Amino acid sequence: MTTGLARASLRARPASATGVFCALVLAATVITASVAVLITASGAPPSPQREDLTTIGVGFTLVTVYLSIFSTAQVAALAVAQRQRETALLRAIGAGPWQLRRAVAAETLLTALPALPTGYGLGLLLVRWWFGAMRDQGLVPPGLTLTVGPLPALVAAAVLTVSSLLGGLLAAQRAARARPAAALGESAAPGSGVTVVRVVLAAAALAGAVALQRVVTAGGPDRVAERVPLLLLAYLVAVGLAGPVLGRLAAVPAGLLLRRFGAPGELAVANSRARSRRLSAAITPVALVVAFALAKLGSLVGRQDPPWIDLFATALYGGFAALVAADTLVMLMLERRREVALLRLIGAGPSQLVRMALYESALVAGTAFGLGAAVAAAATAPLVRLGAPGPARLPAEVWGGLALAVTSLVVVSSVGPLARLLTVRPAPGGST
After folding, report:
1. Which of 206, 211, 215, 395 measures 20 to 30 Å from 227, CA to CA?
2. Residue 300 DSSP symbol
3. What global pTM score does this model have?
């Protein structure tokens, strides 16, 4: 039954499977390249360059494992939330919590199977380019050649298996815990996601991030610099938990402005409030892009020889988060087929719906950019107090370019799927 449910779900919702597949391919690509760097470093004689290569390989491997679990769980959780009616029906006819958990885990595991060879092949291409670039930067011991072997494939397979299973189990927790009657009620009228438990957990996560920052600060400047990515992730956990609350709060001032733009603005505000839990799934990864970029670029201000590897790491983290954000926004828009059809039946024109999507995109991008900037400022505050540059020292062109990139990502990922929905003629009854 478990495998059958997983296969049926993959066939019924290819968009959600595509999002998980892309995240797992990216994870396998980076894991393959990182482990190949580690293997190559292990064959070099002791030297500072060997230590640097080892540190780079270990660091990228660990961060990629975390990001692969995060991205898989994020996209899979949204996919599970989008099929509340099916889940409620399964619960009502007797499906147990563990059956649902196993079905979602099996679904992500089936998606990981084709992702492994694809990511491994791309990883081989990446590590050849990466190793050559590091050699050009003087990070590779003289005479050391790239060694791959079978270990990167085995590690990538293990990481994808763990990431897909753990991500699927985490994604299915909420649906599996719900009682059948409650699940049926929620599928008919999904809530906003703003609950007392979520607020308490967000406050606890924020307190934990602050406590961690104090511990790291006590370790001295070098320790603070090394732990900035960890602080970013700690604060972003709090942002993720508080996402629905923050989304509804952001809709209040935005509503005062958007209502001046007529019906599309009114619809954008109403949708943002009613779908705050869904939108928080998109706001969090976009905020992650902004936070990582501002924190890393801010640490490079004033340096004459910015490490190439730092910029590569920033691109990698941003790529993971951007992929999750794009997948989430596409899935959110494709979920609204009936809503779009109904709005068209009652007289809304394509241009009005496109403007509605643009206003919603502006709200998501603005909220995510503000949260990402706040997280970057909080995580780098210890370094700034020690005299290091921070995000505030970045040129206006960097801030503007990042804002433009974030806005473009959100707009393309939202308006693109809407354009596809608008090509379908609405049928009476609101079905498509």
Report:
1. 395
2. T
3. 0.79
